[in-house]
Structures are given as C-alpha cells and as structure tokens.
Amino acid sequence: MPTADQEKKIAEVDSVCRAKIAEKELFLKDQIRKAQVAGKIEELESLEKQLVSEIRRLHEECEAKKEKLRASFAAN
Question: SS3 letters for the chain?
Fold first, then answer.
C-alpha cells in the first residue's frame, strides 16, 4: 500500500502528464481546424493521425514514469 507521500508523487506525475496532453491537444486541434478551413485534406488527415499518436505516446510515457516510481517505492 503506497504512503500518502508516494501517492502524492504519483499524482504529480499524472498531473504533469495530463497538462502535456492537454497542451498537445490544443495545439494540434488548432492546426486541424486551420487545415479544415483551408481545405487541406491530406494535412488534416496527417494531423489527426499525429494527434492520436502523440496522445498515445504521452499516455505511455506517463504510465512508464508512474511504474518507475512504484518500482522505486517497492525497492525501499
């Protein structure tokens, strides 16, 4: 069972990750909107794929960081 301090550290990692994801979503969704308005279909499709890929990558990165923290807690 994690301690309150350990839970806080995991929550901080989670919070930072959510912020990174939100930032990336805002940026790419703005780019997607601009591509839609300009009628740039290929760019639009590319940006949509990039959005999905970036969100997946950031989620995986976040989970890896949390697992590393949990492993360090277990080692102590």
Answer: CCCHHHHHHHHHHHHHHHHHHHHHHHHHHHHHHHHHHHCCHHHHHHHHHHHHHHHHHHHHHHHHHHHHHHHHHHHC
Condensed to tens digits (0 to 9), the pLDDT of residues 44-76 reads 999 999 999 999 999 999 999 999 999 998 887
Query: What pTM does this model have?
Result: 0.85
Separation CA 64–CA 61 (nearest Å): 5
Q: How far apart (Å, rounded) are the C-alpha atoms in residues 46 and 19?
A: 23
Question: Considering the chain, what percentage of its residues have pLDDT values greater than 70?
Answer: 100
In this prediction, residue 1 carries a pLDDT of 73
